[in-house]
Design a protein that fits this description.
heterodimer, A: 304 residues, alpha/beta, Rossmann fold, Alpha-Beta Plaits, 6-stranded mixed sheet, 4-stranded antiparallel sheet, B: 275 residues, mainly alpha, elongated
Chain lengths: 304, 275
């Protein structure tokens, strides 16, 4: 569906994307995971065929965005990071009028708009102004709008940023249903839980390059241990105490507020720590996540 | 939601035709018009009528000049009307192509949403300008119709051509202003445009007095302004004093400005939306 080779994007002297290779297959949910400024959104805009490729090769649905931009965009759905709903139109018109841009006839547009209002669970808000919707509803409307042309590929740029946990789960459920219906999803996110929930396969991006690629499970297996013991000590003690526990796991990461000891047996680590007379304020044993993968690959956490 | 293939949209293989690119936005602009026409009535129709009554009828009542000194007009009202309507066309064009353009880029991001569809930058410019031209054409038409009973027109066909000239000068200003607005990062630039562009043009491009009154140097400066070409055409047609070679120059200048303006608008928006 999407294939990139040596893809680059520059803005003047600044290179946002520094030569990436990506292949997205039909029907999969593919993710770009990385912190802000990693080059995810620049990549998405090139895939959306609105931002010219600076160098390298990009093919979307077998076409070249430089020459077939309108044809490609006609088969994509785009849910941008920033809200671009028309606040001066009501909810229904946001869908209906958007459909007309794709050349869909009026009757089909109305039909699709009504179906999508139902899908987004905002049928009762059809005549409401956009500005009266909650953040979660606006996002769902944006996604509904991006589906008006029955796209082959749906691009979602940070789909749940700024939403409360409940709204995120409603949205994830809808994206999951789309995926099951066979829509190819391409998602950028800086939330590792979102990437784990939604993506079949993902690339970890950092500073314009791809640091790793695979399924969430493969990435965790390749770059982290099965479990992680989190140890919280007093303020400023973590750096000093790291040396006293580093032999207990495969490796130790020092964060400002805790130590992470990577081991396949987290409980054993905690027991050993206490046996050594160290007294952590709090301990937690959990499974490794993509956050740990990211930390391993870049030396930074996703929130940095 | 269904994901059947039956309603899948048509799949364009390349760029849309200019016509297709515009018609796909028709429903959008109709909706915009339905929402905004009431406000437009006041600014487009009522305000200019106040001008005509105040400047043309009441102030004009004090002005008794030889028709030769009023470019052939038999009254000051007949002199001022064609110029006022042309200046009004410019004012609508500028006001409709400043804040609305910046809003669609910066505040509402409408252009970004539209550009994620098969529409291209030139389609957005074309439809936007078509809407502004419609606003100008309807406002000027009503203005001219209302003035007909005042006996300021010398033929039936003259005002029709004058109306086309007003629309033409409005279109040129709409395109040039669009290009300016698309390049502007902050709305402060609009103040400069209104104070140093629109205001002096309105006052000194021959709408209110013959530009020969300005003296030889300033008269030539006035002749170089786009609005003067519109005022000149509009007045010659209304007063039936057409100098066809001058009319050809006036119309030619405005058409060239439209072409330059279109290019300026499309390149400006293209650059601005390329992120």
């Amino acid at each position: 569906m999407i294939s990139a080779r040596g893809l680059r994007k520059s803005y003047g002297d600044f290179e946002a994307v520094k030569g990436i290779d990506v292949d997205v297959r039909q029907g999969e949910a593919f993710g770009f995971l990385g912190p802000n400024g990693a080059g995810k959104s620049s990549t998405m805009r090139m895939i959306a065929s609105v931002s010219p490729v600076s160098a390298g090769e990009l093919r979307i649905l077998g076409m070249d965005p430089a020459t077939d931009g309108p044809a490609i965009r006609g088969r994509l759905g785009v849910c941008p990071q920033e809200d671009t709903l028309d606040n001066e139109l009501n909810v229904f018109d946001n869908l209906y009028i958007y459909g007309r841009y794709f050349g869909i006839d009026r009757a089909t547009c109305r039909e699709r708009a009504n179906e999508l209002l139902e899908f987004a669970q905002i049928t009762d808000k059809a005549k409401a102004k956009v500005e009266d919707l909650s953040g979660g509803m606006k996002r769902r409307l944006t996604i509904a709008r991006s589906l008006i042309n029955n796209p082959d590929v749906l691009l979602l740029d940070e789909p749940t940023t700024g939403l409360d946990p409940q709204a995120r789960h409603v949205l994830w459920d809808q994206l999951f249903r789309l995926k099951q219906a066979g829509v190819t999803l391409v998602i950028t996110t800086h939330y590792m839980d979102e990437a784990e929930q939604l993506c079949d396969r993902l690339v970890v991006m950092d500073k314009g390059v791809i640091a790793a690629e695979g399924s969430p499970r493969e990435l965790i297996e390749a770059h982290s241990t099965r479990e992680v013991a989190e140890l919280r000590f007093g303020v400023g003690e973590h750096e000093v105490l790291a040396g006293k526990v580093e032999d207990l796991g495969d490796r130790v990461e020092v964060l400002p507020d805790r130590l992470l000891v990577y081991s396949d047996h987290g409980e054993d680590v905690v027991t050993a720590v206490i046996d050594r007379g160290l007294q952590p304020i709090a301990t937690l044993v959990r499974r490794s996540t993509l956050e740990d993968v990211f930390l391993r690959l870049t030396g930074r956490s996703l929130a940095d | 939601m269904t994901t059947t293939q039956s309603t899948r949209t048509e799949r364009p293989t390349g760029s849309l035709s200019a016509w297709e690119g515009m018609t796909r936005q028709l429903d959008y602009w109709v909706t915009v018009y339905k929402r905004t026409w009431r406000g437009g009535v006041i600014s487009s129709f009522a305000a200019p009528l106040f001008y005509v009554v105040a400047m043309g009828v009441l102030l004009g009542g004090f002005i008794q000049a030889d028709p030769d000194r009023l470019e052939g007009a038999t009254s000051y009202l007949a002199f001022i009307v064609p110029g006022l309507v042309a200046a009004h066309a410019m004012q609508i064009a500028v006001s409709e192509s400043t804040y609305p353009v910046m809003g669609a880029i910066k505040w509402h991001k409408t252009f970004f949403a539209q550009l994620a569809t098969p529409l291209a930058v030139r389609d957005l410019v074309n439809a936007f300008i078509a809407f502004v031209v419609f606003r100008i054409a309807s406002a000027c038409a009503v203005f001219m119709l209302v003035l007909a009973p005042f006996g300021v027109f010398e033929s039936w066909w003259g005002p029709v051509l004058a109306w086309l000239a007003q629309v033409l000068v409005g279109t040129a200003f709409a395109l040039l202003t669009f290009g300016y607005s698309a390049r502007l990062k902050s709305e402060e630039g609009f103040g400069v445009l209104f104070r140093l562009g629109v205001m002096p043009l309105t006052l000194f491009s021959g709408a209110f007095f013959p530009i020969s009154n300005l003296g030889p140097v300033l008269e030539w400066a006035a002749r170089l302004t786009p609005l003067w070409h519109g005022v000149s055409l509009s007045r010659m047609f209304c007063l039936d004093t057409v100098d066809w070679s001058l009319a050809a120059v006036n119309a030619g200048v405005l058409v060239v400005l439209c072409l330059i303006g279109w290019r300026w608008a499309v390149t400006g928006l293209d650059k601005r939306l390329e992120v």
